[in-house]
Design brief:
The structure holds two protein chains of two kinds.
Chain A: H1 15-22, H2 28-31, E1 35-39, H3 43-55, E2 58-62, E3 80-81, H4 93-103, H5 110-130, E4 155-156, H6 162-180, E5 183-186, E6 189-197, E7 200-208, E8 214-218, E9 221-224, H7 245-252, E10 257-258, E11 263-269, E12 292-296, E13 314-315, H8 317-321, H9 331-343, E14 355-358, H10 360-366, H11 368-386, E15 395-404, E16 407-408, E17 421-423, H12 441-461, H13 475-494, H14 500-515, H15 521-541, H16 553-577, H17 601-604, E18 606-611, E19 620-625
Parallel strand pairs in A: 1-2, 1-9, 2-5, 9-17
Antiparallel strand pairs in A: 3-4, 6-7, 7-8, 10-16, 10-18, 11-15, 12-13, 12-14, 14-15, 18-19
Chain B: E1 2-9, E2 18-25, H1 32-45, E3 67-69, E4 72-73, E5 95-100, E6 108-110, E7 113-114, H2 117-124, H3 146-156, H4 163-167, H5 174-185, H6 194-207, H7 218-222, H8 230-245
Parallel strand pairs in B: 1-5
Antiparallel strand pairs in B: 1-2, 3-4, 3-5, 6-7
Helix pairs in contact in B: 2-6, 3-5, 5-6, 5-8, 6-8
Classes of the chains: A alpha+beta, B alpha+beta.
Chain lengths: 639, 256
């Protein structure tokens, strides 16, 4: 396997414009002859399907939910970055690029990140034109706020529901194309296999989740916009249905999986309350604009009511350790700091795994009304879940799995190592390095879907003959359908004594304990053994009632858990091999004397991409070296 | 706490359903869906099919939840989706009746799962602003009065769950449709298509088999996002104006 990133030559600032000016085009009359499949309908998928439909391609769009509007991008709260510099505070494309590269701990490709920063400004224009009701100031112009890892205000937002509003914008654009007949929608359809003909992606096998029917869809190109794999941890802020199955099927058909160990643990989530917990809820990072994070200085004070702990006995640890960024230190650093103080025994709440996020100062300074306007829905959500009023008592928060920077390897054109298979949004690995900054996920999803893929896919399709598209009775399609069918039959036939959810919880605990916020060699080796054992038990003891030919949620879950188990193993493998600390990947053996991550640029300034070698063999690790020509590899400091 | 559940079970769209009794053990901190998860775990271990229900984000924003609990869509707590309803809203020993949304425009697919694609088709008929990718002017080129933007946002907060339809004695979808018409109609970008939008969305809504509004106001009371019936008045105004003022499109319009 050769990893060629295919980065255009020329100066960084001109790569993308040069690429667009010289890329191959498909003429309007020919576009309608090509069929493109888009799997997933979140920001990346919906924007891609809508844009490709507008261009005139025949598009088929798939999602597992009952409507494309429900994809989990909808839950993003805080905002979306763009280098508009509307606030005259010194922002620029280069600064957004630099913050994102630095935020990712110098483990992302310069050219991709620069392109992301360049397209960020067009995203805001596009969304406003679609009617996305971003927050505005009294003069009628767009408002901004600050987010972690940046010293400028460049985050556009729509109350605490930015993801919802952006997704509805993309969904409406998608529905418009569905109405016009350029896009055909397949809701409640789950992709269970990739069809590869002569080494090229030519279709997918899906299961109609209502009737259980297995069918093949053939195409000239396949795009996966299927999101991240945070649910490998069982408890995460992802939606319950988010899964890695589409990506994992692609990996097993030859798409390299890059940097699986890079996962983001978000610092501000509502703490776990008990064993029954089914998911975790994020409290937007934007809250750290006005909330101050603290724990008691002394262990003895942890049981006290926060109002009984005087100012002098509180440790505002982020402000203390990172004076220049304070409470807006990046996510990986904030999460690790929270873990540290809780490990020292200074955590708060019934489990001791929590820190305070306190708004008292801001309420005094700005008034309750202002805070309500900015964060009203978040405060309400918090109260509903915890039964505590955050206007009066500080919120309690703790880190939780939120995002995965790793994903399928793609080149500059977003194409994976399987020709014809494109990967967009969180599902790919490309733009966030080892840690994603806040308000960058929405930006990347929409950049890929609206502004990158519509160009790059043309460059691929221009060399493909639509007459070469195989039909659904091609032997490879039949083989893939058969594989799906036998897997389903196998799951239904085991009739064991353990539920899919039980296995999922067990997997999540292993990965959280040994491949979570801090990792070490012994733990990862132990985790590998535990996961391998779990896999054996799963395939001999899982219990899936019902049949394949009907709506069967236990069967859906079991299939996803089976893939998560295998992915969990790959994550541990990747984490074990990367003997350095960077971003969200913190190896305890590699830290500075004051507990900060210690990178090893001599040995690890590269992307690790894993190639599947079959059931009985270990996967192969490939490296794509990262070249930094425009920024200096600096120690990432927020002090 | 111990509860008695009466749950609608229906194997598929074509087989009649019935209420089935279960008992559930719960803790006050659990969400309603987590309580059902526990019931389902028990059923799976008995090789019985779990109760099928739609859910995804479990944080009140995706709009998947669709359960009528004790006769109220999303249950007893105001402005709360089922996934955000916690068991502390119930008492030990309560009997809880759980049914799917009921409307002929939302046919049941299994147990508590129904087909809400009629909502998608209504959006596809005109619930958008035509702004093809790449055609947008600078975002600040057109200032929008803050109060207009805020009102548009209030209407745009709809999550498309369909509780309004489930609550309405006529199974009317007018709160959902009007929220979209208001959201886009309040913004300057939405003006060119404002009246054709009202006509085509209402036409699609009728074609899907939703009933008419007779001003019960149950929709607003059941809406987890507090979408106001004021939007329906706005929609009626736009629709009426459009009905008398919109001329048919000129066939040769724009031909070159």
């Amino acid at each position: 396997m050769k990893l060629d990133p295919r980065i255009p030559t020329g100066p960084l600032t001109e790569k993308w414009s040069h690429y667009r000016e010289h890329v191959k085009l498909v003429s309007p009359g020919n576009k309608r002859k090509y069929k493109v499949l888009v799997v997933g309908s979140g920001l990346a998928g919906a924007s891609a399907a809508a844009s490709l439909g507008e261009l005139g391609y025949q598009v088929e769009s798939f999602c597992y939910q009952d409507s494309p509007r429900r994809a989990h991008s909808i839950a993003a709260q805080g905002g979306i970055n763009a280098a508009k510099n509307y606030h005259n505070d010194g922002d620029s494309v280069f600064r957004l690029f630099y913050d994102t590269i630095k935020g990712g701990d110098f483990r992302a490709r310069e050219a991709n990140v620069y392109r992301l920063a360049q397209t960020s400004v067009h995203i805001i224009d596009q969304c406003v034109a679609q009617g996305v009701p971003f927050a505005r100031e009294y003069g009628g112009l767009l408002d901004n706020r600050s987010f972690g890892g940046a010293q400028v205000s460049r985050t556009f937002y729509a109350r605490g529901q930015t993801g919802q509003q952006l997704l509805i914008g993309a969904y409406q654009a998608l529905e418009r194309q569905i109405g016009l007949g350029t896009v055909k929608m397949f809701a409640r359809h789950e992709m269970l296999e990739l069809i590869v003909v002569d080494g090229v992606a030519k279709g997918i096998v899906v299961r109609d989740m209502v009737s259980g029917k297995i069918e093949s869809h053939m195409a000239d190109a396949v795009c996966l916009a299927t999101g991240g794999y945070g649910n490998v941890f069982y408890l995460s802020t992802n939606a319950k249905g988010c899964n890695t199955t589409a990506n994992w099927r692609a990996y097993k058909k030859g798409a390299a999986f890059a940097n699986p160990c890079y996962t983001q643990i978000h610092p501000t989530c509502i703490p776990v309350s008990g064993d029954h917990q089914s998911k975790l809820t994020l409290m937007s990072e934007s809250l750290r604009n006005d909330g101050r994070v603290w724990v008691p200085k002394r262990k003895e004070d942890c049981g006290k009511h926060p109002s009984e702990i005087p100012e002098a006995d509180r440790d505002y640890y982020l402000e203390r350790k990172y004076p220049s960024y304070g409470n807006l230190a990046p996510r990986d650093i904030s999460s690790r700091s929270a873990k540290e103080v809780c490990d020292e025994g200074r955590g708060v709440g019934p489990t001791g795994l929590g820190v305070y996020l306190d708004f008292a100062d801001s309420i005094r300074r700005l008034g309750k009304h202002k805070i309500q306007e900015k964060y009203g829905n978040l405060f309400e959500m918090y109260e509903r879940i915890t039964d505590e009023n955050p206007y009066e008592v500080p919120m309690r928060i703790y880190p939780a799995v939120h995002y995965t920077m790793g994903g399928l390897w793609v080149d500059y054109e977003l194409m994976s190592t399987v020709p014809g298979l494109f990967v967009l949004g969180e599902a790919n690995f490309s733009d966030h390095g080892a840690n994603r900054l806040g308000a960058s996920a929405l930006m990347q999803g929409l950049a890929d879907g609206y502004f990158v893929l519509p160009y790059t896919i043309g460059n691929y399709l221009a060399n493909v003959k639509p007459t070469d598209r195989p039909s659904a009775d091609h032997t490879e399609a039949k083989k893939a359908e058969q594989a799906v069918q036998s897997r389903i039959e196998k799951l239904l036939s085991i009739k064991g004594k353990t539920t899919p959810a039980h296995f999922h919880r067990e997997l999540g605990k292993i990965i959280w304990d040994y491949c979570g916020m801090a990792r070490n060699e012994a733990g990862l080796k132990k985790a590998l053994a535990l996961v391998q054992d779990l896999k054996k038990r799963f395939w001999s003891d899982v219990c899936v009632p019902g049949k394949g030919e009907s709506l069967n949620q236990a069967l859906e879950h079991a299939g996803r858990v089976a893939d998560f188990i295998e992915l969990g193993e790959l994550m541990c493998r990747d984490a074990l091999q990367r003997t350095e600390s960077c971003g969200g990947h913190f190896r305890e053996e590699w830290q500075t004397s004051d507990g900060e991550a210690k990178r090893d640029d001599d040995r690890f300034c590269h992307v690790a991409a894993w190639e599947y070698q079959g059931e009985s063999q270990d996967p192969l690790r490939h490296e794509e070296p990262l070249h930094f020509e425009n920024v200096e590899l600096a120690t990432r400091s927020y002090k | 706490m111990k509860l008695k559940l009466k749950v609608w079970r229906q194997p598929d769209a074509h087989t009649p359903g019935r209420m089935v009794d279960y008992t559930a053990e719960a803790q006050p901190d659990m969400s309603f869906l987590e309580m059902l998860d526990v019931v389902n775990e028990g059923l799976i271990l008995k090789q019985e099919e779990p109760i099928a229900f739609d859910h995804d984000c479990r944080e009140g924003i995706c709009g998947s939840c669709s359960m009528v609990i004790n006769g109220r869509p999303h249950g007893p707590r105001d402005r709360t989706t089922t996934c955000q309803l916690h068991m502390r809203s119930f008492q030990d020993g309560d009997t809880v009746v759980v049914e799917p949304w009921r409307s002929s425009a939302f046919p049941i697919q299994k147990d508590l799962v129904c087909d809400r694609s009629s909502f998608d088709r209504i959006i596809a008929s005109g619930g958008f602003i035509s702004a093809p990718t790449g055609s947008a002017p600078d975002a600040n080129a057109l200032p929008i009065r803050k109060s207009d933007a805020d009102r548009a946002f209030d209407a745009a907060a709809c999550i498309g769950c369909g509780a309004c339809v489930a609550a309405c004695p006529n199974a009317s979808a007018m709160l959902f449709v009007s929220a979209k018409i208001s959201h886009l109609g309040k913004l300057p970008q939405g003006q060119p298509e404002r009246y054709t939008r009202a006509l085509s969305m209402v036409e699609q809504m009728d074609a899907e088999g939703f009933g008419s509004c007779t001003n019960h106001g149950e929709c607003e009371a059941a809406c987890p996002k507090g979408i106001s019936v004021e939007n329906i008045a706005q929609m009626n105004r736009d629709f009426l104006k459009a009905s008398v003022s919109q001329r048919p499109e000129v066939a040769s319009g724009g031909a070159g």
